Amino acid sequence: MDDRIDALLSDLEAMHSTREVHARRGELAEELAAQAAERTLAERLRATLGRPVQLRAAGREISGTACFLGAGILVVTGTETVVVALDSIVELRASIRRHHQVPDGLERLGLGSALRRLSAAREELTVVLSGDRGTIRGHAEMVAADYLETAGRIIPFGSIALVSARINPFE
């Protein structure tokens, strides 16, 4: 009889222990979900700087090293340098799953800054417009506060999905 009582008590103890483990796992899952809900794409991209990334934007596959994160842009260097508008990124693959919360002081620089630097270097640009509206090649004739003039066309920054060039504007 004592063996059966010992077995029953052991079963009850194991069941109680299992319930505690499941409760802790549930609390941990809730905590992880709450933390994840506070993370941003910019924090994830900040953690990828200096690392390989692959992304899809404006119907193009872009692979290279994420080298600069700015106001609304990510610069990826590979066979060419591509300044990608964050709003045009459809998909991103990165080798790291971290987030980095502290922004760099230069993150206030955006598409206008990149275009002005490329213009100063007399770099030929390939401008891919968002929404499959085409591609324009040429030198920047003028870079204003919110638009680019190239190849005789005025292009609002909001219409630009990405810009590719031979050099990195932030080096």
What does this structure look like?
The structure is a single chain. The chain is α+β, with helices and mostly antiparallel strands. It has two domains: 1-38; 41-165, SH3 type barrels (Roll). It is built from three helices and ten strands, in the order ααβββββαβββββ. It has a ten-stranded antiparallel β-sheet. A hairpin with a 2-residue loop joins strand 2 and strand 3. The N and C termini lie far apart (81 Å). The model has no long low-confidence stretch (mean pLDDT 87).
How do the helices and strands line up, and which of them pair or pack?
Blueprint: H1 2-37, H2 41-48, E1 52-57, E2 60-70, E3 73-77, E4 81-85, E5 89-94, H3 111-120, E6 124-129, E7 135-143, E8 147-150, E9 153-156, E10 160-165
Antiparallel strand pairs: 1-2, 1-5, 2-3, 3-4, 4-10, 6-7, 6-10, 7-8, 8-9
CATH-defined architecture of the largest domain: Roll
User: Could you say what the CATH topology of the largest domain is called?
Assistant: SH3 type barrels
How does the major sheet shape up?
Answer: 10 strands, antiparallel
Let me know the number of strands. Answer: 10
Spatial order of the strands forming the largest sheet? 5-1-2-3-4-10-6-7-8-9
- Helix tally equals 3
Strand percentage lies at 35-45%
Uncertain parts: none
Radius of gyration: 25 Å
List the helices and strands in order. HHEEEEEHEEEEE
Which overall shape is indicated by the principal axes computed on the Cα atoms?
A: rod-shaped
Give the helix proportion (percent range): 25-40%
Q: Terminal Cα separation, in Å?
A: 81 Å
Mean pLDDT over the full residue set:
87
Integer tally of domains: 2
Structural class: alpha+beta
CATH first level of the largest domain: Mainly Beta
